[in-house]
Design goal:
The chain has 115 residues and is an all-alpha fold. It contains 6 helices and no strands.
């Protein structure tokens, strides 16, 4: 079965390539073989090679498993989009102050009684 062709933006491919390169360097620094990383991550050596190349067809869960296999490097994934400045600005723009305060329940009851 042929690998699925995933279409991504060039800048995203560049980020994946850098991530793969950093994972490869992390293996080398720790002197952990591809075979051992593959065994720990529960994937094949070919998948590790795809990760090291930054292949977009590799699932993000595989990237996370490989990072975990490198002595818990996956904990940094939680930092992704933590400081979402653009998202917060968009959210703040959407929060419009109300033009008037909501009517109190007591006012509604008095209106109904004719007071």
């Amino acid at each position: 079965m042929a690998a699925r062709k995933v279409v991504i933006m060039p800048q995203t491919q560049e980020y994946l390539s850098k991530l793969g390169e950093q994972i490869k360097l992390a293996c080398l620094r720790r002197k952990i073989s591809v075979a051992l990383v593959a065994e720990r991550a529960g994937v094949s050596r070919a998948t590790i090679w795809s990760v090291e190349k930054g292949s977009p067809s590799v699932a993000i869960g595989i990237y996370a498993a490989v990072l975990h296999a490198l002595n818990g490097m996956d904990k940094d994934l939680i930092l992704i989009a933590k400081d979402d400045e653009l998202g917060r600005k968009l959210q703040d723009l959407d929060i419009m102050p109300k033009k008037r305060a909501p009517r109190r329940k007591m006012d509604n009851e008095q209106d109904n009684m004719g007071v």
